[in-house]
Specification:
The chain is an all-alpha fold. The chain folds into two domains: about 1-30; about 35-140, Four Helix Bundle (Hemerythrin (Met), subunit A). The protein has five helices and no strands. Helix 2 (about 35-45) packs antiparallel against helix 5 (about 125-140) and helix 3 packs antiparallel against helix 4 (about 95-120). The termini are far apart.
Amino acid sequence: MPKSRIVLIAVIAFLAALAGVATGRLLFPAPEPSETELHALLHRQLDLTADQHAKLEKIEAEFAARRKAIETGMRSDNSRLAEAIAAEQGYGPRVSAAIGHSHMLMGDLQKATLEHIFAMRAVLRPDQKAKFDRAVVKALTDPQP
């Protein structure tokens, strides 16, 4: 079998897999993530004042909007990557550029998440910060997803 035909079959299989995943996500959207241990700590165990609650709610809403925008960009990047793979049928400059842009957005999401964590921390009293810091360290080092 010629090499070009094998590559074409591989690309078609990859695109079919992407289409299957996209269809599955449309038909069966993922459930909303449950409250993280960090947020549970914030809202249940730190004895927050009403002012702290209000500030944290604003921080949460701002981060949710920012995260959604970045995740939307990441989904668009996946489409561009699929198009580049179909066009180049290999690891070419368009595929490389699409991957690079995707990694940039992943980094943006990580930065936004850390900025969000530090913004929440800034609302806390020193005694609350110590508990919060321990929860952050645990979340970053816990081997379970």
